[in-house]
Structure formats: C-alpha cells, structure tokens
Amino acid sequence: MIYLVIGIIALVVIIVIVAKNSDFTGTIFEPEYKRVGRYGETIASNIIRQVLREDDYLFTNVSISYEGKPTELDNVVVNKYGVFIIEVKNYTGFIVGDEDDYEWQKYKKTDAGNTYEKTVKNPIKQVKRQIYILAHYLDYYETRVWVNGYAMLLHGNSPVESAYILNSMADIDLTIHTPGRNYLAANTVEKIKQLLY
Prior knowledge:
By secondary structure, this protein is an alpha/beta fold. 39% of the residues lie in helices and 28% in strands. It contains five helices and eight strands, in the order H-H-E-E-E-E-E-E-H-E-E-H-H. The termini are far apart.
C-alpha cells in the first residue's frame, strides 16, 4: 500500500514538473478540440510573423471587454496602416454555411467511412463582433481608429467567398500593408500598443 501511495505522489510530481516546463502548459487535461484550436492559433501566428515588417506589431490572445461584452482576439496587428484582427479557425472537414449564418455545419469523414456532423461558429460573424468590441474599447480610451477584421481558416475550407476571409500569406501581407482610410500617427500606434498589452 505504501508503494502505491509513493507511486501516485511521484506521478503527480512528474506531471506538475512536465506541465511547468512544457510549451503546452495547461493543456494536459484540455479537451482535444481546445488543443487543436491552440495549435492552429500557433501556426497562424507564425504565418503572420513571416509577413511582418519593421514597424508592425503583433499581439496574440488579447482579452478585452466593452460594456460587459468580453472577447479574446487570436491575433491583432497594429501598424501605420491600421488595426487588423485575424481570427483563426483550425476546422477540418467539409463546411457548409453562408456568410450571414450564425453557425456553420462541419462534416468530417472518419477512416472507417462514417460521417460526423458538428455545428461550428461562423468566424465571419465572430470577427464582426470582435471589430465592434475592439473599436469601442479603443474609443473608450480616446483612441478612435478604424478596426479591420478577418478570419483565416487554416485548411482553406471556407464555404463562402468573402472580403472577411484571408486565404494565403499573400492575402495577409496585402491586407495589413495596404493604405486604407488613413494612416495612424506613431503616437496613436504607441497608445494602441499600450492598450493591447
């Protein structure tokens, strides 16, 4: 009995040490869909970093709230061209839906030939909500700027053609480096950076 107790304590200590020293801290007991989502966000952030220029700033997993409406922004790029949200989805399978649908249907076929259906968030709707919250959050702190938002489906399986969908690294580069409504002054960029840290 004493050996069983010592064994259990040793196992718990090993799990804690591994969790604290791992890049995947906190994911040991997460459901698979959360691990897949986190992995997708890491891939997307690395893709975005490849197109960043000297005066571009990338913020990941930004949690903000406006009037009791919380949101987490996967990626926010800030530069002289503006503020850009890039929401990431690591959806696999065949997806069906329209741009204005609240949810989409995802169909995935297993190796055994079974097809499973699951309801997933429409990232376009999600990013429109995020644009609203971030724009009002910045405005609350006296930083009125135009906020742009996009969704990136890592498997390129968006069911719609939309100006809100980024399909490639070239799309990201063009989106965040094209002059838009107006340039942001250096002090405005600096203030936004402080608000997103």
